[in-house]
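Hey L., structure's done. Input below.
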Amino acid sequence: MDGRTTGDRLRTPGWREVIGADPLPWLLSSEEPAARWVALTGLLDEPDEADVRRAHREVVADPGTRSIVRRLLDWTEDQHLSGHQSPGFGPHLLGLLADMGVGAGDVREVELLLDAMLAHQEATGRFPSYGIAAPGAGPVWGALLCDTHPALDVLLRFGRGDDPRVQAALRRSLGDLDPTAQGRAWPCLPHPVTGWRGPGRRDAVCPMATLQALRAFSRLGAADRPDDLLDAARVVLRAWRERGEEKPYQFGHGVHFKTVKWPPTWYDAYAAVDTLGRYPALWRGSPGGDDARSLAELTACLVAYNVSPDGTVTPRSVHRGFELHSFGQKRHPSPFATALLLAAVRRVEELAPQVVDVDVATLGSSKGGSGRPVASRVR
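Output:
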């Protein structure tokens, strides 16, 4: 380290005010390399570069990282068939590895999977996957938006953004933006082979596909992001505000939405805060407006339902198959889950005064009640 205190390295104290604690020293001394890497790169303004490089090397060499790499299946033959909600879906595993600190060129198996994704692009520009695309049907190649958007996201994260095929996919994704009943956003489009379409009305927004697209486009520089993205982000925030009257089909906002299931792969408060926090124009133009207030409420719920009073995250819900990782068990605080969630909160720390004023107990869900948060953050 370079001798400066933890406080000297922080951009602002906003996220600590929201959390009500400072677990940063615990994170930086963690035996989990991925947790240290996220803390260094996501919670410090100017981390010591030697520390970052050391954490990165340890992430790549860590047996926990290798255990996830071993789960990467052949994209062309035996890709995981349980669907794009599964944490075993190839793009989700690649996203998890990127969250842990694995980067472009670090792991051969990652690069091979990315190559295979690029090799299976549809003429439309979307990236398909091989899986069950309709109830009772056999596996086929095809692209729903919740297939192509996660694939596009990880291709950008692992440095493939200059590839013409990725550029074509970005253009196709913009072309898929539609004036839904809730506003201009991404709907659920039918599968190109089976014709099967996911939940919800044909003219309704798909909040998950929209968040996935927004996350992918967030990997571009601010100057390269299309203007339409903010409109789509506002539709997601509108879904939160109107949750009691216009609940998106199969996308509720109750206790399961507010409680992160680790590793996170689907529509929940973490996905909303982590993604929308990458678009500060949502609140900087109108800090007291509806969008800022909605994002503050989502952040308050994320904290109240997942963060303990000491500032750590002990997973309350987990996907099976990750028991060897701190985020895959429910017995002890997880350094990695803590670091990842706090990094998302830090992106919106400009909203800290609004967040700490939210009384989560008064926020109804789309299906009754607010659930029981880990710790009340009522001020």
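Strands lie at 129-132, 139-142, 178-180, 183-185, 261-262, 317-318. The radius of gyration is 20 Å.

-- N.
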